[in-house]
Each structure stands twice: as C-alpha cells, then as structure tokens.
Amino acid sequence: MSPALLWWSHSQALQATKRTQAAREALEMAYFGGLTQQEIAVRTGTPLGTVKSRMRLGLLAMRRVLLGDGGGTGLADETGWADR
Question: Considering the entire predicted model, what is its pTM?
C-alpha cells in the first residue's frame, strides 16, 4: 500500500470514531503517544475498564470503515453497545 493511500485509510478510519471522541482520543494516546491503557486511565481520570471499552469500540468502528462495512455509524448492532 502506498504511503498516501495508507495515510488516507488511516484518516478515514479515525473519522469513523468522530461520534466517539473519547474513543478516538484514547486510540491516539495509545498508538501515537505510546501510552498503555493504564497510563491513559490515569491521565484522563477515567476507570481502566472504560478506557478498554472505548478503545475496543473505536477499533471496531475503524475496522468497519477499512473493510467497507458502513463507516462507524453505530456499533450497537455488532456489539450490543451504543456509541457513547
């Protein structure tokens, strides 16, 4: 995959989490900031379980965009959870 296409895909995937800003922020802190989930929890004052849930929902939304499954418009049908 070319660098330009990879960047576009990454940008589109991050946009999939626009409805879940907290998930996007957690993913950015983990993947671009190199923080662990525990470190994210401490920095944001959020329970560790919440950080884990947000990251999972964000990754599922990104997966849907990258695979062309809809674009992260909601995950309730797939996970039983609504976007938060």
Answer: 0.61
Separation of first and last alpha carbons in the chain: 33
Cβ-based neighbours of 74, under 8 Å, separated by 6 or more: 19, 82, 83
Q: Helix 21-31 vs helix 48-67: angle between axes, to the nearest 10 degrees?
A: 90
Look at the domain 3-79 and name its fold: Arc Repressor Mutant, subunit A (1.10.10)
List the one residue out of 79, 67, 71 whose CA is nearest residue 55.
79
Reading the chain (84 residues) residue by residue, the pLDDT tens digits are 677 666 667 676 666 655 578 888 999 999 999 999 999 999 999 999 999 999 998 898 888 878 887 544 454 445 544 444
Instruction: Write down the domain spans for the chain.
Output: 3-79
Distance, in Å, from the CA atom of 73 to the CA atom of 33, rounded to the nearest integer, reads 26
